[in-house]
From TrEMBL:
Source species of the chain: Acetonema longum DSM 6540
InterPro entries: AAA+_ATPase (IPR003593), ABC_transporter-like_ATP-bd (IPR003439), ABC_transporter-like_CS (IPR017871), ABC_transporter_ATP-bind (IPR050166), P-loop_NTPase (IPR027417)
Full protein name: ABC transporter related protein
Sequence intervals crossing the membrane: none
Cited PROSITE patterns: ABC_TRANSPORTER_1 (PS00211), ABC_TRANSPORTER_2 (PS50893)
PANTHER family per record: ALIPHATIC SULFONATES IMPORT ATP-BINDING PROTEIN SSUB, TAURINE IMPORT ATP-BINDING PROTEIN-RELATED
ABC transporter domain segment(s): 3-234
UniProt GO molecular function: ATP binding; ATP hydrolysis activity
Superkingdom in the source lineage: Bacteria
Amino acid sequence: MRIVIEAVCKEYTGRQEQSLLALNDISLTVEQEEFVVLVGPSGCGKSTLLNLVAGLLAPTSGVIAVEGLTEDRDPAVGMVFQEVGLFPWRTVAANIAFGLEEMGIGRQERKTRLAHYISLVGLTGFEQAYPHQLSGGMRQRVGIARALAIQPDILLMDEPFSALDAQTRTLMQEELLHIWDKTRLSTLYVTHNIQEAVYLADRIVVLSRRPGRISSIIAVDIPKFSRDQEQYRYCFNTYVDEIWRLIRKDAEEALREGES
Ligand SMILES: Nc1ncnc2c1ncn2[C@@H]1O[C@H](COP(=O)(O)OP(=O)(O)OP(=O)(O)O)[C@@H](O)[C@H]1O
């Protein structure tokens, strides 16, 4: 599956005729099995772009399409957010099953998928636990399993690990790569964290400040599953420095204007 974004602009219109151009002329293709990470200063339109791809917002102009579907239907979109938004009264299994029930998937198939995705995210044994009994990292695993269980065509992730402590975040990044490797979904991922971007991405898209425009696209040429190894440390840090240089001025302006 490919996500094709062509000349997309998004303007928010306020009540008193004030409008805000959040995104201007965004063209980007997430190729089949590609993991693309969006970075940029606060308020540059990262979440807006993700919501447009998800179909939760409509572009003011331009086109967004998911290409590669073999049937005539809307693409299924898996979404993972910073706020996992689990139902506190449902168990882990029942939270993951919710989307499947909504889709009308039968009991037996639900059971098979639950077992598969719960095991994939490492939650076997916690099926009957309630959200309040889980750590932040475990709750986010439930969020990932819930997104994957619908067997989406594409995966969208909006700062999924930003509420986690640093160690849990590092572990979840590692796990995400392994989980992603089993699905190979075309993925668009938003983060503020440059190290996270360099660790996860095939390509990093840097957005500039308002209105958000693509200022650079950087392919990360370090073997995907070895980026934390000593031998690549210099190379890794070079990417981090390069991206920080690209967004620093914008980030400082955003900070001055109180957007973070
Ligand atoms: N519903 C809305 N109505 C009006 N303006 C909005 C709306 N949603 C977002 N904006 C504005 O659009 C711009 C882009 O917002 P968006 O949340 O997409 O940026 P972001 O890069 O994801 O920000 P952050 O990194 O802080 O999460 C911001 O200036 C924001 O204030």
